[in-house]
Write a structure and sequence with these properties.
With 153 residues, the protein is mostly helical. The chain is 67% helix and 0% strand.
């Protein structure tokens, strides 16, 4: 038996919170969790974009064959943008936070587009408002974990 009982002493517990100025032992786990969260949310944003691209061919967007409405064109363009932004954010989940905010901005445009670019069919209006609201929520939510990692909380 050793003369000194240092081997059997309980380790000291120190405060590792960032506010206490201690070392952050959980930082790699926090970064990994944040990255996974952003990947899931960004993948969903990309999925919304894919839906917007195909929606004009599935939903009743056209009220009459002789009336040209801007909804299909707007949805395809917004869909391509959301698909690209979601892929950018998915590829580097802790970088490019601007892509999340831009996705939320496109979502806001989708919510007001049926009223700005009238005439819209009922199906196109409902689709754009629902997808727009989802893009706003998911865009803002996917920016949050990155900001938390940057602040260390």
């Amino acid at each position: 038996m050793p003369a000194d009982n240092d081997e059997f002493r309980e380790p000291e517990v120190t405060d590792t919170s960032p506010r206490a100025g201690g070392a952050m032992r959980d930082m790699p786990d926090m970064r990994e969790n944040a990255a996974q969260t952003v990947k899931h949310l960004s993948g969903t944003i990309a999925g919304l974009g894919a839906w917007l691209i195909i929606a004009p061919f599935i939903l009743p967007y056209f009220a009459a064959p002789d009336i040209v409405i801007p909804a299909p064109y707007n949805d395809v363009v917004c869909g391509v943008l959301l698909l690209i932004l979601g892929a950018i954010r998915w590829g580097k989940p802790l970088d490019n936070v601007w892509a999340s905010y831009t996705s939320a901005g496109i979502g806001a445009w989708l919510v007001i587009a049926p009223f700005v670019l009238a005439p819209y069919s009922f199906g196109a209006t409902v689709n754009d408002i629902v997808i727009g609201l989802l893009a706003i929520v998911l865009g803002i939510a996917s920016a949050g974990p990155t900001k938390s990692v940057e602040r260390g909380i």
